[in-house]
Write a structure and sequence with these properties.
single chain; mainly alpha; MetI-like fold; two-stranded antiparallel ribbon; 2 strands; 68% helix; 1% strand
């Protein structure tokens, strides 16, 4: 028997990778995962950026923009920069005003300036437009006026140019950005010297409107919670098949237009509607009740429309609570109501908080329901946002009211998050 001598191995053993190589490979793998994740969420992120972030940023920017005076009268604003806003302005301001109005007349941009000045000083619109049409100012021989001759010509054209109030309005609105609209939304105003004061009584309406908006939203939230809590509890105790059937009935309003639902409530709540007929048939009332174009119709319709937004969070939380907890408390000697109140209800606080926050925030921005079912004293902030946007074309005021509503929403959400953290820690 012959033995073959051992031969060399067919291949050399692989060298172990170094730590640096492992780190590079791990970094590349993590980078690929991040790029893949970013590519997957990029369409949604871009969509949210275009439809949510950019409009809100534009709204906040527009609420502090005040460009009419600064853009139309740049030389006049510069000439008034050293004026103490007492007495008559310098002669250079009159010359700058004539030059700026001549340019505005040629470019047809004086209308926005006239409207803006008329907000602070009623009657300024006609003065500005009349002066603009008279430019360029010329003497009796048809030669353009210049220097000190412009001041008496402007005062002769309209004596208001000799009053410091007109010049104070121009000087106080010379900056492109100011808190004017935000202050006006809070019934405040800034005088010619920058001091903040309470607006006149006939102009102080927005605090009342905000209070009405928050009160209506609070009542609707409380009514929705009072109706939704027992209904959600009842659904959570049902067998799953039956609960799903009733949940479909709860979700039906989501599939119906808001206008259709409001029209249905108009039919139900009118003087000859089904509600009044039923009350009179039962002998509860002798005459039809006024249920339309007042606060009652607004409460009823908004509660009905927003009720599913309260039921769904409550139902999802209640469904996850084991019923054995309450039975255990009763078996240990607790009264059924006390067991329900002390054991069951605290576990539903997250659903109550989420539903109440959702309903309240949605109610803050409601427009169609109060506009169609309410009277003049039931209109909320959103009505005036639409009014300034579509009727008076006052974008600054509309954006300021919207910015305050947005700020209130953020405050409410932060408060909710704070309480939610406290509940989790407890």
């Amino acid at each position: 028997m012959t033995f073959l001598a051992p031969t060399a191995p067919l291949s050399m053993p692989l060298a172990e990778p170094s730590k640096a190589q492992l780190k590079r490979d791990l970094h590349r793998a993590q980078l690929r995962k991040r790029v893949t994740a970013l590519a997957l969420i990029a369409p949604l992120a871009i969509f949210l950026l275009i439809t949510f972030v950019v409009p809100i940023a534009a709204l906040l920017m527009r609420s502090v923009e005040n460009p009419e005076v600064a853009d139309t009268l740049p030389h006049t604003v510069a000439a008034l920069s050293t004026w103490d806003r007492h007495g008559a302005p310098p002669d250079a301001a009159y010359a700058a005003l004539a030059a700026d109005l001549e340019v505005a007349h040629a470019a047809n941009t004086g209308g926005a300036l006239a409207r803006r000045m008329n907000v602070d000083l009623p009657g300024a619109r006609s003065v500005v437009l009349k002066t603009m049409r008279a430019t360029p100012l010329v003497d009796a021989d048809g030669k353009p006026l210049s220097g000190a001759a412009i001041k008496p010509a402007l005062i002769a054209l309209d004596e208001q140019w000799g009053q410091p109030e007109f010049w104070q309005v121009i000087a106080s609105n010379g900056a492109r950005y100011s808190p004017y609209y935000l202050l006006a939304s809070l019934d405040l105003k800034q005088d010619a010297f920058g001091n903040v004061h309470q607006a006149d009584a006939e102009q102080s309406v927005y605090i009342q409107i905000f209070g009405r908006t928050f009160w209506i939203s609070l009542v609707v939230t409380a009514a929705a919670l009072a109706i939704a809590y027992p209904l959600a509890y009842w659904l959570s105790t049902m067998p799953e098949r039956r609960a799903n059937l009733f949940m479909i009935l709860v979700l039906i309003p989501f599939w119906t237009s808001i206008l259709v639902r409001i029209a249905a409530w108009i039919v139900l709540l009118q003087s000859e509607g089904l509600v009044n007929q039923a009350l009179m048939a039962l002998g509860l009332t002798k005459a039809p009740l006024e249920l339309l174009f007042n606060r009652v119709g607004v409460y009823v319709s908004m509660t009905h429309i927003l009720l599913p937004f309260m039921i769904l969070p409550l139902y999802s939380v209640m469904k996850s609570i084991p019923p054995t907890y309450v039975r255990a408390a009763v078996s240990l000697g607790s009264h059924p109501f006390a067991a329900f109140w002390r054991v069951y209800v605290p576990q539903t606080y997250p659903g109550i908080g989420a539903g109440a926050l959702l309903v309240f925030i949605l109610a803050l921005g409601y427009y169609i329901t109060p506009a169609l079912l309410g009277g003049p004293n039931e209109q909320m902030v959103s009505y005036y946002v639409a009014y300034f946007t579509n009727v008076t074309i006052n974008w600054g005021m509309a954006c300021a009211l919207g910015a305050l509503l947005f700020g209130a929403t953020l405050v409410l959400y932060s408060v909710y998050r704070r309480f939610a953290k406290l509940e989790v820690s407890l």
